[in-house]
Amino acid sequence: MAIITVSRGSFAGGKRIAEGLAQRLGYPCLGREEALQQAADEYGISESELISTLNEAPPFWQQIPGKRLAYVKCVTAVLLEHALQGNLVYHGHVGHLLLADLPGVLRVRVLADPEFRIEAAMKQTGLDRAQAIAHIQRVDNERARWAQLLYGVDWQDPQLYDVILNLGRVSVDSGCETIARMTELPEYQLSDEASRRLEDFRLSCRVWGALARNPATRSAGLQITAKDGAVRITGSVGSSKTSTTIAQMAGAVEGVKDLQCEVGVGTDWYW
User: Fold this and answer.
1) Which helix (DSSP H) or strand (DSSP E) does residue 40 occupy?
2) Do residues 81 and 3 lie in contact, with contact meaning Cβ atoms separated by under 8 Å?
3) Domain residue extents for the chain
4) Per residue in 58-103, pLDDT tens?
5) Cα(178)–Cα(230) distance, rounded to whole angstroms?
6) For the structural domain made of 3-188, what CATH number should be given?
7) What b/e string do you get for 16-50 counting C-beta neighbours within 10 Å, with b at 16 or more?
8) pLDDT one-digit tens code per residue, 177-219
């Protein structure tokens, strides 16, 4: 059993790797687009708002995460629902960051040379060459900005990955074979401890998802942790009424056995 994240730039071939690997291993395969749609449906968020919030880097005057972080946690909760049995292949550009707190996740980075990406973009979108180049550069820049904003890292940093595949040097089949063999290593087996941490992380994300449903709470500056059903929420909001609402909504989430809501009223409130 293994959870595998395949991170890729646009039109870099990562989807082909993920789908081939899932077929080879018999694992469920989930793409970023499907995860966004499911998150929008499950948490009552407009899909267009969810996509634009996560896709577009914020303007310079709105650099604090706010609801962006809540939406990220909604998407993460969807990933974890699919990974309950310990098997999942997820392909998206920052899957390794979404599941960064979990042990045993096999983090794969797929690279392709610029010409490969340009030709793929032209073929799949109908753009001309200049438009394809501009599109790839824009998407890469936006993803880099919000990865830095939310996680404080360069998402292309090789130290964030367990293996990097260059599709200019290895075939898709060879890449899938390499990753499949890595899943047999003890480092990527889902231990009992890893399973407990997965469940704890899933519960904290589900609490985030509950708060994201409400416009009054989705932009709060919060930290949420969970351990064996006990949930702790800290941070600051704009009013005592909002703090009370957060406690009520979090306490109603299935799986929450005990709640410590230590949310104060202060300035860490973001719109």
Assistant:
1) helix 32-43
2) no
3) 3-188, 214-265
4) 554 444 456 778 888 888 889 888 887 778 999 986 788 888 778 8
5) 39
6) 3.40.50.300
7) bbbbbbbeebebebbbbeebbebbbeebebeeeeb
8) 999 999 999 999 888 888 898 899 999 999 999 998 888 888 7
